[in-house]
Amino acid sequence: MGKTAIILGATGLTGSILLQKLLADTNYKAIKLFSRSPSNVMSSKIVEFIVDLHHPASFSDDFTADEVFCCIGTTAAKTNEKEQYKAIDFVIPVGAASLAKQNGIPSFIVVSAMGANASSAVFYNKTKGEMEQAILALNIQKTHILRPSLIGGNRTEFRLGERIAKVAMSLLNPLFIGGFKKYKMISPEKIANFMITLANSDHKQVIFSSDEIANIGSTRD
Fold it and tell me: What is the pTM of this model?
């Protein structure tokens, strides 16, 4: 009959690519998008909900699916207020995971970041680590956390610092070998491929490093 997937962050870089791949995947009959702005993607598979993601109770009745893909995230450069940053990178993913648990959705796959650590002195890494801990504590049947390195590709908005970092990383990538492979810049296509592979497999591993994501993400398509 086909599955129903939920995407949070479908207008972002990785989320928009994930959406296109799910639309082309015959395993899925419906894709529910929950976001604050429309995706402007037209398909009979898409059911779109324009909501305030900080208040999941307001859309709980519609939040039903076979799996949730959470691609929500911002950067310190784009959101320099710590409370605002935490409201996006912690509150939204954890709220969505809590709703998934409440509604009996068995699969929750979330994009975190390399270096996530709840004990870190770095606010960005600490927030990501706390988000991971809060989601894991919900004990959703199938939980997967992805920790990609710097994500390549072109975003709709211009981020000077990120653009410079991507140029530098593209030059350094060939030098990252052996145990340093996880530091290589990774494409959003590989992340999206990996998320779909996880959703349609029986992987038991919970947390995946960037090199693991790249290796398996390269085998799809």
Answer: 0.85
